[in-house]
Amino acid sequence: MIKAIGAVMVILAGSGWGMLQAAKIEECYRQMRYLRKLIFRIRSEVRYSRRVLPEAFLSVGSEAQEPYKMWLLSLYERLENRQGTSLAGIWEEETRTHLPVIGIPQDMLESLIRLGGELGTIDIEMQVRTLDLYLEQMEQKMEDMRTEQKEKIRLYQCIGVTGGVFLAIILL
């Protein structure tokens, strides 16, 4: 009887691990969608409202969810108080401080960091084009993720269950 309960617990643990991994993939995609939305809003603030970047960060950041809110408001505060060498340096520091926890792929995080180096030193139209280019790259990455997402979710769930069953058989 105890072996059977142990076997069921091992199978449930394996299944839980598979579900957890699948949830991480879904959360990564959700965070990418939200970040794309924020970048698009910054682009709109710069293009249509003709706001300078610090003001765009304040406007978008005041309505964003954490940790994006803290990231954008920190950018605004440091740029307004001239705390740092350049927009690129401040952007990189704040991005590395606030955004690694969101779970987006490392290549997209590095691309976001590079984006800061391309903003601020050019006119409004070039800033908008730079943001458009980043949004296109992000859209392509999200499309790739979307095609792989279903396969990976199913794979993790199957591995979790079959791994649990395999371990339960071995332990019996």
From TrEMBL:
UniProt keyword terms in alphabetical order: Coiled coil
Family matches, as Pfam families: Spore_III_AB
InterPro entries listed in its UniProt record: Spore_III_AB (IPR014198)
Superkingdom of the source species: Bacteria
Coiled coil: 128-155
Protein name per Swiss-Prot or TrEMBL: Stage III sporulation protein SpoAB
